[in-house]
Amino acid sequence: MNAHKHSFWYYLRRGVYISILAALLLQAWALYQVWYYAQPRTLQPADAVVVLGAAAWGKNPSPVFKERINYGLSLYQQGLAPKIIFTGGTPVEGYPTEAAVAARYAGKRGMKQADMLLETQSRDTYENLLNTRALAAQNDIDSLIVVSDPHHLARAHYIAEDLDLKVQTAPTPTSRYNNSGRSKQAKLWLQESMLLVLYQLGRLFPDSRDVARTQLLPYRNL
């Protein structure tokens, strides 16, 4: 009887240690992925640039959103893609959608209306890309360059992969977050790596993926 009890507690402790180690390894993997996809890389021409949505302040993009739009415009002007897909709905009925705000901003900077496509229904990154997939299919767009803040692109990449989208990721060369203190940057990167872990666990436990999507929503106020 004692030997049986000893064996039970031994295996219980062993299971706990293995679980902790697995969690630490998964978190380390996520941190590396966030770092890896934050790095600039050489881009190949694509059918369209996709600018992931962020907060709009009335008719104007927030500073974070403005950086994304500016970089998308830069890629478009360099000839890397003939079109830009602006994404993002509105959290408050009656206000302009994020996509419409981005299109207005881009139009004032000389972009042709005919070269813009708007996705106006999404509330988060997953919906940005899910709705983009349908929009791309309707317009014979096969390859995409996804633009967002550096820390955000690892999760965007894996979402796009799950949606069978052919994408390259393009981190904005400038970001509001680059000017924040080290502690705030570290907190942000840790939060994003945790969201990536939750998203990956969602392949096994769908509820955790919903948590990841819900937790992202406050960042859209930036």
Automatic annotation (TrEMBL):
Limits of the DUF218 domain: 47-192
Short name of any one Pfam family annotated for the protein: DUF218
Protein name: YdcF family protein
Organism: Vitreoscilla massiliensis
InterPro entries according to UniProt: Cell_Envelope_Assoc, DUF218, Rossmann-like_a/b/a_fold
Gene3D superfamilies according to UniProt: HUPs
Entries under CDD domains matching the protein: YdcF-like
